[in-house]
Amino acid sequence: MKGIHLILLAVLLCSEHALSLQCYNCADVQNVGQCQTNTLCETTPSVCYQVSMILTAASGQMTKLLSKDCVSSCNDVSEEMRQLAEKRDPLGASKLEVRDVECCETDLCNRVGPVGRSLWALAGGLLLSLGPALLWILL
Pick from 100, 38, 40: which is nearest to 64 by CA? Predict the structure, then answer.
């Protein structure tokens, strides 16, 4: 009976899906909520990335864009975004500015930005971790 479990474990570990990294995948969306699809990365090694950009039209209107996917290395996406930002519309109608490139290496890790950047999230985490101890002291 234990032999069957070992064989099943070996099959799962050797399958392509068990080794593939999953990342959220969307291009040029304006809202994080619009990025709900995910994809299996085809290259190994792979990283998930999230890029935030500002597109400024000739009229001065600014639009925040977000792109997510997987790539073989963080340097590759940084270089690609740098080249994309350097390309100008021949008529000067728009300008693209890359604000932030974030990479991570676990499944679906490019969903939202890091929690540590929000003061409210930090305060909430501290309250939740210390809450039971404070409650125990008061009782």
Answer: 100
**pLDDT tens-digit profile of 82-124?**
888 888 666 666 888 999 999 999 999 998 654 445 566 666 6
Instruction: Encode 41-95 in three state secondary structure.
Output: CCCCCCEEEEEEEEEEECCCCEEEEEEEEEECCHHHHHHHHHHHHHCCCCCCCEE
Q: Report the number of distinct structural domains present in the chain.
A: 1
Rounded distance between C-alpha atoms, residue 112 and residue 92, angstroms:
32
Tell me the pTM. 0.63
Q: Within a domain: residue 135?
A: no
CB atoms within 10 A of CB 85: 13
Residue 117 lies in a domain: no
Between CA 57 and CA 60 the distance in angstroms is 5
Q: State the CATH number of the domain containing residue 26.
A: 2.10.60.10
Residue 124 lies in a domain: no
Determine how β-strand 62-71 pairs with β-strand 26-29.
antiparallel
User: Which domain range does residue 56 map to?
Assistant: 16-111
